[in-house]
Specification:
Blueprint (H helix, E strand, L loop, with lengths): L3 H9 L4 H13 L1 H7 L4 H14 L1 H25 L4 H22 L7 H8 L3 E4 L2 E7 L2 H4 L3 H6 L7 E6 L8 H18 L8 E5 L15 H6 L5 E4 L5 H7 L16 H11 L6 E6 L2
Parallel strand pairs: 3-4
Antiparallel strand pairs: 1-2, 2-3, 4-6, 5-6
Helix pairs in contact: 1-5, 2-5, 4-5, 5-6, 5-7
Length: 288
């Protein structure tokens, strides 16, 4: 089956050829299924995809990728209805490729497993604008790990509507690009979603951990990125997400000595961890 839209999408998002071949085989067999799914609810489609993964991880991952490629055409139709920019659509769909590469790296399979996350993009809950992603969101401070006193000091009230910032892992964290992304996102939501009265931007990430200042260079991209946010609260003080992000896998403490030191950041982080340093998350705000 050759769907011209899917072929164009795969080219624009630089989808690996092996993954595309696997997905096209599923599309050929499940054409009627995917046509039906375009008319069903987000929750129902998520349930269907998760059931396929549960039955067989590799086949389910291929099914999920095929669904994403198929449903992307419906997503594009909804973009056109709202007159959203094509540039935002193609950039947002690149997340499919990010998670395909993750599945290949972590599980050795062609497809994707993060279907719950990708539903956010397919159903227009999340948009990539230049370097960063922006998601409709309602803050829930207790779930995010903010203390009682942090919640009282937060510049945005709990359960308020905000825009949640995410950082895709497919590029350099260039500070001017990040700054530009936030500025353009503010204009994007005011232009295309004027009914969404949000109180500001938030970001919950290891990139904002205040303890990063203990071992990262002051002029590093990560330290610069954190200056976009004020205030920033330290949360999840014993989270080791940084290990997975810098080395591509979670590693127990006893194996830290074997971690590669291919970059300056890896060397600095490894030395900090081996000296007993703790890492966590930061919860940051950008408010008017």
């Amino acid at each position: 089956m050759r769907n011209e839209f899917i072929v164009a999408l795969a080219e624009k998002i630089e989808l690996p050829k092996d993954a595309l071949t696997v997905a096209q085989a599923v599309l050929e067999c499940e054409e009627a299924t995917f046509q039906r799914m375009k008319g069903e609810s987000e929750a129902e489609n998520l349930k269907t995809c998760l059931m396929e993964i549960k039955r067989n991880e590799a086949k389910g991952a291929a099914f999920c990728l095929a669904f994403c490629l198929s449903f992307a055409e419906e997503s594009y139709r909804r973009y056109k209805e709202k007159q959203l920019p094509d540039t935002v659509f193609w950039a947002s769909m690149r997340d499919i490729t990010v998670w395909v590469k993750t599945a290949k790296r972590d599980h050795g399979i062609d497809g994707l497993l993060e279907i719950g996350w990708l539903m956010q993009t397919l159903y227009l809950h999340l948009f990539r604008i230049e370097r960063l992603q922006f998601q409709f969101f309602s803050v829930q401070y207790a779930l995010a790990g903010l203390s009682f006193w942090q919640r009282r000091r937060a510049p945005i009230k709990n359960h308020s509507a905000v825009i949640n910032i995410h950082i895709p892992e497919d590029g350099k964290l260039d500070f001017p690009l990040c700054e530009s992304s936030v500025q353009k996102a503010r204009a994007f939501f005011k232009t295309y979603y004027p009914e969404y009265s949000f109180q500001g931007f938030i970001c919950d990430s290891w990139l904002l951990d205040p303890k990063n200042a203990a071992f990262m260079a002051e002029n590093s991209n990560i330290r610069k990125f954190s200056t976009l946010f004020s205030p920033v609260f330290a949360t999840r003080n014993y989270n080791r997400e940084i290990v997975k992000r810098l080395w591509g896998k979670s590693v127990p403490k006893r194996e830290y000595k074997q971690l590669p030191e291919n970059t300056s950041l890896q060397r600095r982080t490894k030395a900090y961890l081996l000296s007993g340093g703790k890492t966590g998350n930061g919860y940051g705000f950008i408010v008017p």
